[in-house]
Amino acid sequence: MKVLVTGVKGQLGYDVVKELESRGHEAVGLDIDEMDITDEAAVNKVIHEVAPGAVIHCAAWTAVDKAEQFPDKVYEVNALGAKYIAEACKHLKAKMVFISTDYVFEGVGNVPYKPDDERKGLSVYGKTKTVGEDFVRKALDEHYIVRITWAFGVNGGNFVKTMLRLADSGKTELNVVNDQIGSPTYTKDLARLLVDMAETDKYGTYHATNEGYCSCYEFACEIFRQAGRNIKVNPVTTEEYLKMVPQQARRPLNSRLDKSKLAANGFRPLPTWQDALKRYLKEIDG
Predict the structure, then answer these.
(1) Is 125 an annotated catalytic residue?
(2) What pTM value is reported for the model?
(3) How many CB atoms lie within 10 A of CB 23?
(4) Of 14, 75, 113, 125, catalytic
């Protein structure tokens, strides 16, 4: 199968291409230099030239705070970009995997969100990804919408790398929020699942993360424990943290996602986030 992957310079796109190639698929990885997803004509031209059987659309505006300053631009990337790709896929009769986010939910309470729960994004990022989902659903029946949380991978910046950088910069103490709960997700594990999906016709909206939940504080503590860094981590509330480090975008406190639909459709769950972290640290150290 020939598969076009957008956002190949990012964490997830990079790992998806590697996973596709490891299975013998023909992977065509593109980034903004090869195809600007906000340019409808360019999207149509490139996708029709490549003529893939599937598109795994990883490209997105993911700088959550900066998104608040440029809502129109973020809408072009996260919403219109998805629309143009979905419409091109429909014309070619290609399937599409669209990567979405827990930020489409309000993030209240402590019950894991199901794929069909009401979406009420708090930020420009969350709202534009919601519209992107709707565009994909409207344009194309042969789609997978896959919501993920707290991604970390070898090719790009992420929470794990930030924590290690702060520890190695000589800091002996850090404040990390303990009331934002989610699932750290290794893009290498996620890439395997996305390719599993693309090889089937079990279309629909899914939640996909590594198994288990934790707070950002608990995640930071486990990073330092596994990496052998001796640094004190102070748990603080989001409200306390915002007084110290003002942020522009509102973040969901509850990013728990219900992943039971994966097993119900025969997809293999991802390993625990602790196991994923262990393998990831080994990968970036090697």
Answers:
(1) yes
(2) 0.96
(3) 13
(4) 125
